Amino acid sequence: MDVRKFIDWIKHTLLWLGTVGITLLGLATITFFISRIVPIDPVLSIVGEKAPPEVYDRVFLELGLDQPLYQQFFNYVLGILQGDFGTSFVTNRPVLEDLISFFPATFELATLGLIIGVITGVSAGVVAAVWHDKWPDHIVRIVGLIGYSIPIFWLALIALLIFYAKLDWVGGPGQLDISYEDIVEPVTGMILIDSLLAGETEVFYNALSHIALPSILLGYYSLAYISRMTRSVMLEQLSQEYILTARVKGLSEWRIVIFHALRNAAIPLVTIIALSYGGLLEGSVLIETVFAWPGLGNYIASSLLSADMNAVMGGTLLVGAVFVLLNMLTELLYKILDPRAV
Amino acid sequence: MNKAKELDTPLQSLGQARRAQLLKFWQRFKRNKLGLLGLGISITLVVLAIFAPLLATHDPYEPALYERLTAPGAEFWLGSDELGRDIYTRILYGTRLTLFIVLLVILTSAPIGLLIGASSGFFGGWVDKVLMRITDIFLSIPKLMLALAFVAALGPGIVNAAIAITLTAWPPYARLARAETLAIRKSDYISAIRLAGASRFRIIFRHIVPMCMSSVIVRMTFDMAGIILIAAGLGFIGLGAQPPLPEWGAMISVGRKFIFDQWWVAAMPGIAIFVVSLGFNLLGDALRDLLDPHLRNR
After folding, report:
1. pLDDT in tens, A3-33
2. Which of B213, B200, B241, B199 is nearest to B97 (CA)?
3. Which residue of chain B has the CA closest to A324?
4. pTM of this prediction?
5. Looking at the complex, does the CB of residue B64 fall below 8 Å from at least one CB of chain A?
6. Nearest Cα to A94, choosing from A79, A115, A105?
7. Which ipTM was obtained for this model?
8. Residue A99 contacts residue A90 (beta carbons within 8 Å)
9. How many angstroms separate the CA atoms of A302 and A85, rounded?
10. How far, in Å, CA of B13 to CA of A303, rounded?
C-alpha cells in the first residue's frame, strides 16, 4: 500500500467517524428536544404532587433545570456519553440497567427473525428473478405485497389464535411456560442459549416452542423487503454480459445463478439485510407487546403508556444508535467488499 | 377581440393535448389489473367515508350492553364489540379517521420535504450539506420509533399521532426532490428562465417542484400504505386515536382481550387495515411502473 492510498484511507475513515458522530449527536438532539416539549413536569413526576416547595426546588436544581438550554443539552450529551440515561420512574432503576437487562431477549428474537427472513427472502428473490414474469415471480410478489400491507400486530394476534389457541402447535405468549420458569440461571439473557448452556434440553424445547411464532412473524415481516430487493439485484446481475459468457461456456443454469449472479449480488444484499435488521428492531416493538415478550420493545411500549420519558428516550436512543451504526458499518463494509466504490 | 382569439387557440390546444395525454395514460394504466384493483379499493374507501352515515346499520357509539360480543350474523354483520356496538358500522366510520390521518400526513409532509429537498439541491453548498445531514439523521431512526417518541411527548390523540407521523415522513421526499433538482438544475430551460429574470423562489416553485411531481406522487401512494400501518400501530399501542373513536388500530387493541373467544372483535378491523393498505400498495406499484422514468424499463 503506497503512502497516498494510506492517507486517503485515513481521510475516509476520519470522515466516516465524523459522520457517525454527527448523526448520533443529531439523534441525541432530537431526543433532547422531544423530552423538552413534553407537557409533563419532570420534577413533579419525581417528587409527586404533594411535595413541599423546598423539596420541589431542590429537585429542580438537581435536575439542572435552572441552567440555560444549551448548558442542559451539553449536560445531557455528557451524561449519555457516560452511560447516564437518567432514572426510570417506573422501575426506579437507572435506564441503562433496564436497557441492558431487556436487550438480550429482543436481540435473540430479532436475530432469529432475521435468519428466517434472510433464508426465505433471498431464496424467494432468487426464484422470482430466475422465473422473471412467470408464475413463481408473481407468487413471490404477492406474498411480499401482503407482507408490506398487513399490520404485523394483527397478524400476530391471528397467528396466536390459530396456532396456539386452536391448534396448540406452539407455546403461548412469554418466553416459557410458567412451570419452566426460573429453572435456568440467566447468563447471556438469551433463553435458548442459556438453557443449552445449562444442559436443560426440556427448557430449550419449551423456549423454542415459544419463540417460534414471533420469530417466524418477524421473519415474514423482513421477507417482504428482502425478497423484493434480492429480486431486483438479481435481475440486474442476470442481465450482465458475464452471465452470457458463462452460458456460452455451457455452465448449468443453477451454477450460473448461484455461483455467478448471487455471488455478485452478495455485496448489495449485505446492505439490504443490515437495513432490514433495523426494521426488525422496530417491528419487535409491536410483536413484543402482543407476545408479552420481555424485551426492549415491550419495555419501550409500557414506558410510553406510563409517560416514563427517560426510559422512552433511552430506548429510542439505543434503537436509533444501533440502526445508525448498522447503516454506517454496511457502508464501510461496502467499500471494503467492492473496490470500485470509494 | 382578434388578439384574444389568437391567444385562445394555443391554450385550447394545450388543454386538448393534456386531455389526450391523460387518456393515453389511463389506457396504459388500464392494462395493469392489480393496479385497477388498487384504484378500486382506494375509491371505495373514499366513497365509504363520504356515505358512512347512509350505509351504517347502527350507531357507531351507542352501547347496547345486552348484545355485547355477539358473533357475526344477520343483526351484526361483522359481530358486535364489548359494548354491543356494531363492528361493521364502526369500521365504516373508521374510514373517515383513516382518510383524515393519511391526508393530513401526506399534505403536510410532502410539501415540507419538497421544499427542503428542492432548496437543498438548488442552492447547493453549505445549505445542501446542513439540510441533507438533518434529513439523514431523521432517516436514520426507524420511523415507528421516532413517531412513538414524538407522540409520547405530544400526548396521545389522533391529531398528535398525525403530527408525529408527519415529522417522520418528510425525509424521503426531501431526498427525492433533491435528486431530481440536481438532475435538472443545470438544464438549459432553467438557465433560460434564470436569464429571463425569474427569482430563485419562482424557479424553485414554478419550474423545479412541478418536475418532481411524478416521482412524488408515486412515493405518496406507497407512503399512504405505510402511514395507515403506523397510525394503526400507534392506535394499537394506545397512543393514537383514543376510545370511543372507531380507529381501526385502537379497535384491534380492544379486541385483543377477546381474541381467543370472540375473535371477530380484533379480526375484522385488521382485515380493513390490510385491504386498504394493500390497495394503496397495488396502486403505487402500478403508478410507479407508469410514472417513474428510472424504473419504466424494468
Report:
1. 888 888 788 888 888 888 888 888 888 888 8
2. B241
3. B140
4. 0.87
5. no
6. A79
7. 0.86
8. no
9. 17
10. 62
